[in-house]
Amino acid sequence: GAGVSQSPSNKVTEKGKDVELRCDPISGHTALYWYRQSLGQGLEFLIYFQGNSAPDKSGLPSDRFSAERTGGSVSTLTIQRTQQEDSAVYLCASSLGGGSEAFFGQGTRLTVV
Amino acid sequence: QQQVKQSPQSLIVQKGGISIINCAYENTAFDYFPWYQQFPGKGPALLIAIRPDVSEKKEGRFTISFNKSAKQFSLHIMDSQPGDSATYFCAERSWVTGGGNKLTFGTGTQLKVEL
To answer: Measured between CA atoms, how close is A97 to chain B, in angstroms?
Structure first.
């Protein structure tokens, strides 16, 4: 596909369970970002990857959140011991380089029940 | 802590009218001010963007006006169409460790264009 692809589109999980959200960036894009969109907080930056390295993790809300990127491509955002306040749409974006336009995926809607 | 104040929260405009959305920022370190358009179930998409050394930028029916001294910028949609009905976010870009950037978004404006 030509755009940023995220899976799953929707995820319902029970409180306390771990979840993994996947992002396939646009081919050739070295920079990858995760954002969270929620009713209370709007759109928030979570983490930035350049290649496989994450030089800025400043937006991760707690140590229950982690992310990795492998092969300079696919990224996984993991939320451990999910809480109801984690319910949100998690958006991934990628760009050619750190200063280039970022293209967003359609997001994963996470609902914690 | 929200650094970008966006108004109004929602806006209803008649077809053919002008839609105006305003944003105010605090941090003068921002160097790039984009507007994003988001349709339900989709991610935000870049609509138009401006740098602070320019006071106005126009692309088709969309214009950004930028007032550096007032720390405000606005989006004008001329000849608004029903297909413009979406949520609009202003944003500001700042640089992060490692050479990347992050976007700080406004709270969004739900625009509805009525026939």
So the answer is: 7
- What's the confidence (pLDDT) of residue A58? 86
Phi, psi of A86 (to 5 degrees): -80, -10
On chain B, the residues whose CB falls within 8 A of the CB of A98 are 95, 98-101
A106 inside domain: no
Domain housing A38: 5-96
Q: Report how far residue B9's alpha carbon sits from residue A69's, in angstroms, rounded to the nearest whole number.
A: 36
Chain A residues with CB-CB distance to B43 below 8 A: 4, 91, 93, 104-107
Confidence label for A100 from pLDDT (cuts 50, 70 and 90): confident
CA distances in angstroms from B93 to A33, B8, B60, B65, listed in the order given: 13, 21, 23, 17
pLDDT in tens, A73-96: 999 999 999 999 999 999 999 999
Q: How many domains does chain A have?
A: 1
Q: What is the CATH superfamily name and number for domain B4-114?
A: Immunoglobulins (2.60.40.10)
